[in-house]
C-alpha cells in the first residue's frame, strides 16, 4: 500500500532539502577558498592596487606559490601589500612583483617576474621592483575621450584637396585597360 503524502508536506520537504543543499554549498565555497598559505612574508609598495583582493594568488611561472595576506595604506598614499610565500620558494633579489589579471575581466593576482640575481630575498624583505595594477576602466575612458576630441577637432582648410584615396593606385585597373594599345589605323581590332 502506497503512503500518501499531502501536497503541503511534500512542498515543505522539498524546501527543506533545497535549504540544506544551499547551506552545504555555502559552507563548501568558503572552506575551499580559505587555503591559508603558511610560509614567509615579503612586502611590496604600490601606488595603486585597484581590484586586487585579499587572499589573491601570488604566482611564479604561473603556479600559485603564495597569497596576498594583508593590504594597508602606507605613508605617501601608497598601498603596502604583505605577501605570504610557501617555504622553499626562493625569489631572486632583483625580481619584480607585478599586479596582473587573468584575461581582460579576470581576477587580479600578484605575478612574480624572477630576476637573475644569485642573492635571494630574505623573509621580511621588500621588492625593489613593482608594477601597479592596470586600471582598464581608466584606459578605456582615456581612449573614448581621445576619440571624441579627434572627432570634434576641425579639419585643416586644405584637408581632402589633392589627396589620393587610400585604395587608389594599389592593385587597381586603369580605366583604359580593356582598350587595344595598337596604333589607330593598324588594322588590328579587339
What shape does the CA trace take? flat
Uncertain residue segments:
179-183
The pLDDT mean sits at 80
What is the gyration radius calculated from CA atoms? 33 Å
- Percent helix among the residues? 10-25%
What does the largest sheet look like?
A: 7 strands, mixed
Number of helices: 2
Output the strand order for the largest sheet: 1-4-3-2-6-5-7
The termini sit apart by: 100 Å
Description of the molecule:
The chain has 190 residues and is of the alpha/beta class. It has a domain at 39-138. The protein has helices at 7-32, 136-152, and strands at residues 39-46, 57-60, 63-74, 78-86, 96-101, 108-113, 129-131. β5 (96-101) and β6 form a beta hairpin. The longest helix has 26 residues, at 7-32.
Task: Present the secondary structure layout.
Elements: H1 7-32, E1 39-46, E2 57-60, E3 63-74, E4 78-86, E5 96-101, E6 108-113, E7 129-131, H2 136-152
Parallel strand pairs: 2-6, 5-7
Antiparallel strand pairs: 1-4, 2-3, 3-4, 5-6
Features:
single chain; 190 residues; alpha/beta; seven-stranded mixed sheet; 2 helices
Please summarize what this structure is:
With 190 residues, the protein is of the alpha/beta class.
Amino acid at each position: 500500500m502506497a503512503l500518501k503524502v499531502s501536497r503541503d508536506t511534500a512542498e515543505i520537504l522539498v524546501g527543506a532539502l533545497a535549504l540544506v543543499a544551499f547551506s552545504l554549498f555555502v559552507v563548501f565555497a568558503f572552506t575551499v577558498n580559505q587555503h591559508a598559505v603558511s610560509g614567509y612574508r615579503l612586502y611590496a609598495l604600490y601606488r595603486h592596487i585597484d581590484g586586487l583582493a585579499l587572499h589573491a594568488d601570488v604566482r611564479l611561472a604561473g603556479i600559485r606559490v603564495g597569497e596576498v595576506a594583508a593590504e594597508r595604506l602606507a605613508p605617501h598614499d601608497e598601498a603596502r601589500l604583505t605577501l605570504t610565500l610557501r617555504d622553499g620558494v626562493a625569489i631572486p633579489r632583483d625580481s619584480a612583483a607585478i599586479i596582473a589579471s587573468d584575461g581582460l575581466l579576470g581576477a587580479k593576482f600578484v605575478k612574480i617576474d624572477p630576476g637573475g640575481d644569485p642573492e635571494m630575498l630574505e623573509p621580511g624583505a621588500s621588492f625593489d621592483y613593482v608594477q601597479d595594477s592596470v586600471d582598464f576602466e581608466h584606459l578605456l575612458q582615456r581612449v573614448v575621450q581621445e576619440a571624441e576630441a579627434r572627432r570634434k577637432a576641425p579639419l585643416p582648410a586644405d584637408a581632402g584637396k589633392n589627396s589620393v584615396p587610400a585604395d587608389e593606385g594599389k592593385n587597381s585597373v586603369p580605366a583604359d585597360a580593356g582598350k587595344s594599345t595598337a596604333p589607330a589605323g593598324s588594322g588590328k581590332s579587339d
